[in-house]
């Protein structure tokens, strides 16, 4: 499985770069069809789930949405939320169910076209392929602001992908910057452990966990929201730039209400702006950020109410959310945090990732480095992307929608093989 043979390029009909749920889903389709292929994985299959999630991490979508091809969720808690170790076990079970041809510990450094073939330079030599599926997702380079360079050396700073648990940080108070899903859940993890948390709030939206008798995800599924293609979304492809709604599946699932955290002692600030000496500066707008997040959550409830009424569904009434805390005018106008005076011992940067496809030598990218594609099919014959956020629908890249996207690309792969005159089964990978 992991032989490291060098020499002439090793050829496969299809090579998949990336061994997460996206690459493995494509491998499942190809193996069912007997198509020669190989998966190249930089680390170990499912690496991000194993090594880039904190200890109490869990899914924010119900287990019933886990529908990898040929391998739906098989546990006894479909409305629960798998924890980190359960997610890894689910993925490992998927791998065991069909034994994909994978080479782990292989880093791809360059992909380019060579005549009718694609060539791949990797840490264990070169490969060639008739078709290539890039399945490395869209989260590659952790974003840390340049201001971080000015933090005092004795203050620990990590990215959200490096956070493990409250005990892994030194004693003292913690500054968490960013309120996407990771930032809010890490702030909650620290808060529940009794750590004093300072949270730099951004413009991420939130969503309620349940409403009118069902998980909001179940309502949205019934409303076919998860089938909405990106071109029909009100924001169009711009939705790919939006931060995910924050909510949690922890302890059976609940809302994340930053106002409630504030009542309990968490210190909320506006967006992190700068660092001047030992003082962190935060911009104005905390009130607006909180109000806008609530407004998004309430607008989703509005759409659920309309769906219930239009379909004559018997669902219990539920009172709407009432804010439990408001920031002071002084805090809303902008604030500063003296790191020394507040005994800040650690900073956790939760402001996302950048993509990095610089290793692909093919002119298919826009000015921001995003690949041009239509449902993962690029203008370069035989080159595909799989697992990008909102590649086709909300579920693209997630356990809920990756099977559909992989099936779509599989059909394109087969069509191109037919046009190239390939028939019958290829040699085994």
Give the gist of this structure.
The chain has 429 residues and is α/β, with parallel strands linked by helices.
Describe this structure in words.
Keywords: Oxidoreductase. It comes from Herbaspirillum robiniae. This is MSMEG_0569 family flavin-dependent oxidoreductase. InterPro entries: Auxin_biosynth/cation_transpt (IPR050982), CHP04046_FMN-dependent (IPR024000), FAD/NAD-bd_sf (IPR036188). It holds the Pfam family Pyr_redox_3. The longest helix has 25 residues, at 286-310. α1 crosses α9 (402-419). By secondary structure, the protein is of the alpha/beta class. It contains nine helices and 22 strands. It folds into two domains: 10-140 and 355-419, FAD/NAD(P)-binding domain; 142-349, FAD/NAD(P)-binding domain. The strands form six sheets. Strands 1, 2, 5, 6, 7, 8, 21 and 22 form an eight-stranded mixed beta sheet that branches. 39% of the residues are buried.
Distance between the termini: 10 Å
Helix run count: 9
Q: Indicate the radius of gyration in whole angstroms.
A: 23 Å
CATH class of the largest domain: Alpha Beta
The CATH topology of the largest domain turns out to be FAD/NAD(P)-binding domain
Give me the secondary-structure category.
alpha/beta
- The shape is globular
Please identify, by name, the CATH architecture of the largest domain: 3-Layer(bba) Sandwich
- The helix content is 10-25%
Q: Strand share of the residues?
A: 15-25%
Count of individual domains:
2
**Unreliable stretches:** 1-5, 423-429
Total beta-strand segments? 22
Q: Determine the CATH superfamily of the largest domain.
A: FAD/NAD(P)-binding domain
Chain-averaged pLDDT:
93
Largest sheet: 8 strands, mixed
């Amino acid at each position: 499985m992991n032989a490291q043979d060098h020499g002439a390029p090793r050829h496969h009909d299809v090579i998949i770069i990336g061994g997460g749920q996206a690459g493995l889903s494509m491998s499942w389709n190809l193996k069912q069809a007997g198509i020669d292929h190989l998966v190249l994985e930089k680390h170990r299959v499912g690496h991000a789930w194993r090594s880039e999630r904190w200890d109490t991490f869990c899914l924010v979508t119900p287990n019933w949405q886990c529908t990898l091809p040929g391998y739906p969720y098989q546990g006894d808690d479909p409305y629960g939320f798998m924890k980190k170790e359960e997610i890894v076990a689910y993925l490992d079970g998927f791998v065991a169910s069909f034994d994909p041809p994978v080479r782990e510990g292989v880093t791809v450094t360059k992909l380019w076209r060579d005549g009718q073939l694609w060539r791949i330079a990797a840490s264990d030599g070169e490969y060639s392929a008739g078709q290539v599926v890039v399945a490395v997702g869209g989260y590659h380079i952790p974003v840390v602001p340049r201001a971080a360079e000015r933090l005092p050396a004795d203050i620990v700073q990590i990215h959200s992908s490096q956070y493990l648990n409250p005990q892994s940080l030194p004693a003292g108070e913690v500054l968490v910057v960013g309120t996407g899903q990771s930032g809010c859940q890490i702030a909650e993890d620290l808060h529940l452990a009794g750590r004093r948390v300072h949270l730099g709030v951004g413009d991420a939206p939130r969503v309620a966990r349940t409403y009118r008798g069902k998980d909001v995800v179940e309502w949205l599924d019934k409303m076919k929201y998860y089938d909405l293609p990106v071109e029909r979304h009100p924001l169009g492809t711009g939705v790919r730039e939006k931060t995910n709604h924050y909510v949690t599946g922890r302890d059976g699932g609940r809302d994340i209400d930053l106002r409630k955290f504030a009542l309990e002692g968490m210190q909320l600030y506006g967006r992190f702006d700068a660092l001047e000496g030992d003082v962190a500066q935060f911009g104005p707008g905390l009130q607006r950020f909180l109000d806008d997040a609530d407004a998004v959550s309430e607008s989703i409830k509005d759409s659920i109410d309309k769906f219930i009424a239009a379909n004559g569904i018997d669902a219990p009434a539920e009172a709407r959310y009432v804010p439990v805390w408001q920031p002071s005018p002084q805090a809303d106008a902008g604030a500063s945090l003296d790191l020394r005076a507040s005994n800040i011992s650690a900073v956790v940067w939760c402001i996302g990732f950048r993509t990095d496809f610089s290793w692909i030598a093919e002119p298919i990218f826009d000015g921001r480095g995003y690949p041009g594609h239509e449902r993962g099919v690029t203008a370069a014959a035989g080159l595909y992307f799989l697992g990008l956020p909102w590649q086709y629908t909300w579920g693209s890249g997630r356990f809920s929608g990756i099977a559909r996207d992989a099936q779509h690309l599989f059909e394109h792969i087969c069509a191109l093989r037919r046009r190239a005159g390939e028939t019958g089964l290829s040699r085994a990978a």
